Amino acid sequence: MPRAKSAVFLKRGNDLSSLSEAALRASNHDGAATCAIQSSIALADALTVQRLGLRSRGQDHRDVVTLVAQLDIRRGSRIATLIQAILDRKTDVEYGNSEVSKADARQLVAWAMELRQLILTELG
User: Fold this and answer.
1) pTM above 0.85, yes or no
2) How far apart are CA 16 and CA 18, in angstroms?
3) Which has the closest alpha carbon to 44: 79, 15, 78, 71?
4) DSSP secondary structure string, 21-60?
5) Domain 3-123: what homologous superfamily?
6) What is the distance between the alpha carbons of residues 118 and 43, in angstroms, rounded to a whole number?
7) What does residue 56 show for φ and ψ, rounded to 5 degrees?
């Protein structure tokens, strides 16, 4: 994939990040959590596309952690840890049979915001 396409994923990630914060403020916990997860996936794709010309193609997106591990970046370990923690919640949030709690939504949005800052720093 052309590295310039990272801008598409970056925009998507930033847009979804803003939506996750707005949803949290509106007490839309399911929306906040879902947008936080999707923004994290898009931002991780922005990073790996820019650096490797590759993005996660798996159904559960877990191979993005492997891609991030290939990068020689200062905060790569923390980025991989955050992505893993966020993806660990993906199935339950998006397909679970209960609503997302306020605490869980807050945690996912906080992780996604930290991930966003780290990735933006890496992207320069």
Assistant:
1) yes
2) 5
3) 79
4) HHHHHTT-HHHHHHHHHHHHHHHHHHHHHHHHS----STT
5) Nucleotidyltransferases  domain 2 (1.20.120.330)
6) 10
7) -65, 130
Residue 112 contacts residue 40 (beta carbons within 8 Å): yes
| Biggest CA pair distance of the chain | 40
Residue 19 is predicted with a pLDDT of 98
CB 75 within 8 A of CB 55: no
pLDDT tens profile 75-89: 888 999 999 999 999
Distance (Å, whole) CA 84 – CA 63: 10
CA–CA separation, 105 and 19 (whole Å)? 13
Over residues 89-105, the pLDDT tens digits come to 998 998 999 999 999 99
Amino acid letter, residue 81: T
**Length in residues, the chain:** 124
Residues 6 or more apart from 33 whose CB is under 8 A from it?
Answer: 20, 89, 93, 100, 104, 105, 108, 109
